[in-house]
Protein backbone atom coordinates (compact mmCIF):
# COMPACT_ATOMS: atom_id res chain seq x y z
CA UNK A 1 0.00 0.00 0.00
CA UNK A 2 2.94 2.34 0.34
CA UNK A 3 3.67 2.47 -3.41
CA UNK A 4 1.18 5.20 -4.31
CA UNK A 5 -1.52 2.91 -5.73
CA UNK A 6 -3.62 3.04 -2.59
CA UNK A 7 -6.10 0.25 -1.99
CA UNK A 8 -8.84 2.82 -1.39
CA UNK A 9 -7.78 5.37 -3.99
CA UNK A 10 -10.88 6.76 -5.70
CA UNK A 11 -13.25 5.05 -3.24
CA UNK A 12 -16.23 7.20 -2.20
CA UNK A 13 -15.71 6.80 1.54
CA UNK A 14 -18.29 8.08 4.01
CA UNK A 15 -18.46 8.47 7.75
CA UNK A 16 -21.07 7.45 10.24
CA UNK A 17 -22.00 7.45 13.88
CA UNK A 18 -24.54 5.74 16.11
CA UNK A 19 -27.67 6.84 17.96
CA UNK A 20 -29.90 5.09 20.46
CA UNK A 21 -33.19 6.17 18.85
CA UNK A 22 -33.33 6.34 15.05
CA UNK A 23 -36.77 8.01 14.96
CA UNK A 24 -35.71 10.77 17.38
CA UNK A 25 -32.60 11.27 15.23
CA UNK A 26 -34.69 11.46 12.04
CA UNK A 27 -36.97 14.09 13.56
CA UNK A 28 -34.03 16.12 14.89
CA UNK A 29 -31.90 16.09 11.74
CA UNK A 30 -34.78 16.48 9.26
CA UNK A 31 -37.16 18.80 11.10
CA UNK A 32 -35.06 20.71 13.63
CA UNK A 33 -31.89 21.07 11.55
CA UNK A 34 -33.50 20.90 8.10
CA UNK A 35 -31.06 18.35 6.66
CA UNK A 36 -32.34 16.08 3.88
CA UNK A 37 -32.63 12.65 5.50
CA UNK A 38 -33.04 9.36 3.66
CA UNK A 39 -34.26 6.43 5.76
CA UNK A 40 -33.60 2.89 4.60
CA UNK A 41 -33.03 -0.49 6.24
CA UNK A 42 -33.55 1.04 9.70
CA UNK A 43 -30.72 3.51 9.18
CA UNK A 44 -30.52 7.17 8.20
CA UNK A 45 -28.39 8.89 5.61
CA UNK A 46 -27.86 12.61 5.99
CA UNK A 47 -27.75 14.04 2.48
CA UNK A 48 -25.24 16.88 2.77
CA UNK A 49 -23.54 19.04 0.13
CA UNK A 50 -20.48 17.53 -1.47
CA UNK A 51 -22.06 14.19 -2.34
CA UNK A 52 -20.91 12.30 0.75
CA UNK A 53 -23.89 11.09 2.74
CA UNK A 54 -23.35 10.52 6.46
CA UNK A 55 -24.64 7.27 7.91
CA UNK A 56 -26.53 7.27 11.21
CA UNK A 57 -27.17 3.79 12.53
CA UNK A 58 -29.01 2.46 15.59
CA UNK A 59 -26.96 0.98 18.40
CA UNK A 60 -28.80 -0.23 21.52
CA UNK A 61 -25.81 0.33 23.85
CA UNK A 62 -24.92 3.67 22.19
CA UNK A 63 -22.51 5.87 24.11
CA UNK A 64 -22.07 9.37 22.63
CA UNK A 65 -18.56 10.30 21.59
CA UNK A 66 -16.70 12.82 23.74
CA UNK A 67 -15.80 14.85 20.67
CA UNK A 68 -17.54 16.63 17.79
CA UNK A 69 -18.85 14.08 15.27
CA UNK A 70 -20.29 16.56 12.76
CA UNK A 71 -19.58 20.23 11.95
CA UNK A 72 -21.95 22.44 9.98
CA UNK A 73 -20.06 25.32 8.31
CA UNK A 74 -22.14 28.52 8.24
CA UNK A 75 -21.46 32.06 7.06
CA UNK A 76 -22.81 33.60 10.29
CA UNK A 77 -22.50 31.59 13.54
CA UNK A 78 -24.36 34.24 15.53
CA UNK A 79 -27.39 33.98 13.23
CA UNK A 80 -27.23 30.17 13.10
CA UNK A 81 -27.15 29.96 16.91
CA UNK A 82 -30.13 32.33 17.21
CA UNK A 83 -32.12 30.34 14.65
CA UNK A 84 -31.31 26.99 16.26
CA UNK A 85 -32.21 28.31 19.73
CA UNK A 86 -35.55 29.42 18.26
CA UNK A 87 -35.99 25.81 17.04
CA UNK A 88 -35.40 24.46 20.56
CA UNK A 89 -31.71 23.55 20.30
CA UNK A 90 -29.72 24.05 23.50
CA UNK A 91 -26.06 24.96 23.14
CA UNK A 92 -23.26 23.59 25.28
CA UNK A 93 -21.50 25.97 27.65
CA UNK A 94 -17.88 25.46 28.61
CA UNK A 95 -16.19 27.51 31.32
CA UNK A 96 -12.62 27.49 32.56
CA UNK A 97 -11.37 25.45 29.59
CA UNK A 98 -9.49 26.32 26.40
CA UNK A 99 -12.83 26.14 24.56
CA UNK A 100 -14.62 28.56 26.88
CA UNK A 101 -17.91 29.83 25.47
CA UNK A 102 -19.92 32.99 26.04
CA UNK A 103 -23.46 33.17 27.45
CA UNK A 104 -24.87 32.16 24.05
CA UNK A 105 -22.59 29.16 23.75
CA UNK A 106 -20.22 30.62 21.16
CA UNK A 107 -16.46 30.09 21.47
CA UNK A 108 -14.71 33.33 20.54
CA UNK A 109 -11.23 32.55 21.82
CA UNK A 110 -9.27 32.48 18.58
CA UNK A 111 -9.81 30.56 15.38
CA UNK A 112 -13.21 30.44 13.73
CA UNK A 113 -16.32 31.18 15.78
CA UNK A 114 -17.87 27.87 16.82
CA UNK A 115 -20.78 26.71 18.97
CA UNK A 116 -21.51 23.15 20.08
CA UNK A 117 -24.81 21.37 20.64
CA UNK A 118 -25.96 17.76 20.87
CA UNK A 119 -28.42 15.59 19.01
CA UNK A 120 -31.02 13.59 20.99
CA UNK A 121 -28.49 10.74 21.41
CA UNK A 122 -25.90 13.08 22.96
CA UNK A 123 -23.60 13.22 19.93
CA UNK A 124 -21.75 16.55 19.80
CA UNK A 125 -22.34 18.70 16.71
CA UNK A 126 -21.23 22.21 15.88
CA UNK A 127 -21.93 25.25 13.78
CA UNK A 128 -18.63 26.76 12.71
CA UNK A 129 -18.01 30.03 10.87
CA UNK A 130 -16.60 29.55 7.37
Describe the structure in your own words:
The chain has 2 helices and 8 strands, in the order βαββββαβββ. The chain has about 130 residues and is an alpha/beta fold. It has a single domain (about 15-130), classed as 2,3-Dihydroxybiphenyl 1,2-Dioxygenase, domain 1 (Roll), CATH 3.10.180. The strands form 2 sheets. The protein has a 4-stranded mixed β-sheet, covered by helices on one side. Strands 5-8-7-6 form a 4-stranded mixed β-sheet.
Secondary structure: elements and pairs:
Elements: E1 16-19, H1 22-32, E2 36-40, E3 43-47, E4 54-58, E5 68-74, H2 77-86, E6 106-107, E7 114-118, E8 124-129
Defining key terms:
130 residues, alpha/beta, 2,3-Dihydroxybiphenyl 1,2-Dioxygenase, domain 1, 8 strands
Please outline what is shown here.
This protein has 130 residues and is of the alpha/beta class.
Q: What is the CATH C-level name?
A: Alpha Beta
Main β-sheet, spatial strand arrangement: 1-4-3-2
CATH topology: 2,3-Dihydroxybiphenyl 1,2-Dioxygenase, domain 1
**Cα separation of the termini:** 35 Å
> What class do helices, strands and sheet pairing give?
alpha/beta
Oligomer: single chain
Helical run tally: 2
Radius of gyration (Å): 16 Å
**In percent terms, what proportion of residues is strand?**
25-35%
> Which superfamily, in CATH terms, is the homologous superfamily?
2,3-Dihydroxybiphenyl 1,2-Dioxygenase, domain 1
Helix content range: 10-25%
On the 0 to 100 scale, the average pLDDT is 92
Uncertain stretches of 5 or more adjacent residues? none
> How many distinct domains?
1
N-to-C order of helices and strands: EHEEEEHEEE
Dominant shape:
globular
List how many beta strands DSSP finds. 8
Largest sheet: 4 strands, mixed
CATH architecture: Roll
Amino acid sequence: MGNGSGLFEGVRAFSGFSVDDIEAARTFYAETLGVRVIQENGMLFLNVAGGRDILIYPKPNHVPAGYTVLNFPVTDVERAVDELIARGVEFEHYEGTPIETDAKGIHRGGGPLIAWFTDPAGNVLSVIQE
